[in-house]
Amino acid sequence: MAKRGFPGMGGFGGMNINQLMKEAKKMQADMEKSQEELANKEFDSTAGGGAVFVKVSGNKELKEIIIKKDVVDPDDVEMLQDLILTCVNEALRKVDSAQTAQLGKYNIPGLM
User: Fold this and answer.
1) 3-state DSSP call for residue 66?
2) In angstroms, rounded to a whole number, what is the distance separating the alpha carbons of residues 63 and 53?
3) What is the C-alpha to C-alpha distance for residues 85 and 67, in angstroms, rounded to an integer?
4) What's the rounded Cα separation, in Å, for the pair 106 and 111?
5) What is the pLDDT of residue 66?
6) Which residues contact 46 (CB under 8 A, 6 or more apart)?
7) % the chain with pLDDT above 90
8) Four-CA torsion 28, 102, 47, 68, nearest 10 degrees
9) What is the spatial distance between Cα 112 and Cα 103, in angstroms, rounded to a whole number?
C-alpha cells in the first residue's frame, strides 16, 4: 500500500510538529513581552513652538496635556483646537511607529 503525503517532507517541510509548536509558543511569549514593554513606554509631542504638550502611553491613552496660558485666546479658540489635534495626532503616530518597529519583526500577516 502506498504512503499518503509528500515523500521526504516529514510533515512540515522536515520540521517536527513539536518543534513547530515550541517555536510558536516562544514567538507568542516574545510578542507579549514586546507589547508589555511598549505599553509601559510614554510618547510625547509638542505643537506651536511648545505652546501645547501632550503625553500618551504605548496603549494610546492620553496621559497629560499642558497648554501655555499665553496661547489661550478666547477670540481664537480654533487655533488652540488645531494645536491640540496636531499634537495628539503626532504623539499617536509615534506610538504607531514604535509598534511597527517593535512588532513588525514577527512578520505575521494580519497582525498590523
Assistant:
1) strand
2) 11
3) 12
4) 9
5) 96
6) 52, 53, 54, 87
7) 50
8) 60
9) 8
